[in-house]
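User: I'm putting together a teaching handout on how multi-component assemblies are represented. Below are the sequence lines for each component of a complex, exactly as they appear in our records. Could you produce the 3D structure of the whole assembly as structure tokens, so the students can see both representations side by side? Please keep the chain order the same as the input.
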Amino acid sequence: MLMPRKKFIAGNWKMNTTIDEAVELAKGVVAAVGDCTDVDIAVCPPYTNLVAVGEAIKGSNIKLGAQDVHWVEKGAFTGKVSCAMLKAVSVEYVIIGHSEQRTYFGETNETVNKKTKAALGAGLKPIVCVGETLDERNDGKMETIVEAQVRGAFEGIERDGALTCTIAYEPVWAIGTGVNATPEQANEAHAFIRRILAEIYDDDFAQSMRIQYGGSMKPGNAKDLLGQSDVDGGLIGGAALKADDFAGIVKPA
Ligand code: 13P
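Assistant: Of course. Below is the structure of the complete assembly, with chains in the same order as your input.
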């Protein structure tokens, strides 16, 4: 018997919040949904705010996530942060391969794979992001792109490790644009990702893995998106920056 997939809502705060703002936001999230056990919840503040946010969410059901990680253990990599550094400040989840990393900072399917392997090796739980651009969708390439991203991310990763990952399907055209994928578009893409996972691993694996949707999810559209059979949660950008809005997405989940 397969366990039903528990919904998972994560807030990606991106490059927002100073430490004071982060603590205030984290406290707001704790007050609003900190005792919720029906849904897994995480917040992913910028690196500089991880410790303070970790303190603010302590004792609640909110978990801590980071927005990226480097795959090398330590050394001369100016500006980078390692898995061990994240573990040392009680980070549990790490976002890997966000489209903003891919677009602006040279992230490739290969670096996503290296980061995912390193994170798993360190006991972090990766949230692996995939998704096509508007041009790619209009050219009928959504499936080709997403398949390459999924296969690339999990290349050489054994089943048990891969099962601790979450995939976030984030169509680039929906991120920060106010134009979310329709529930049907999201569900179709998620079902497609599950078919790829069944090919890489097996059917049970594909049915067990959680796939979040990300891209302009907000309280007003969360219920419909989260009501889809293959949508297991959300990776929230803009709406994660207000505790009430974030809570308004967690509640329908
Ligand atoms: P928005 O919710 O602001 O569209 O961002 C989504 C996202 O990129 C989450 O990682």
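A couple of points students might notice: The domain at 8-244 is CATH 3.20.20.70 (TIM Barrel). The two ends are 23 Å apart (CA to CA).
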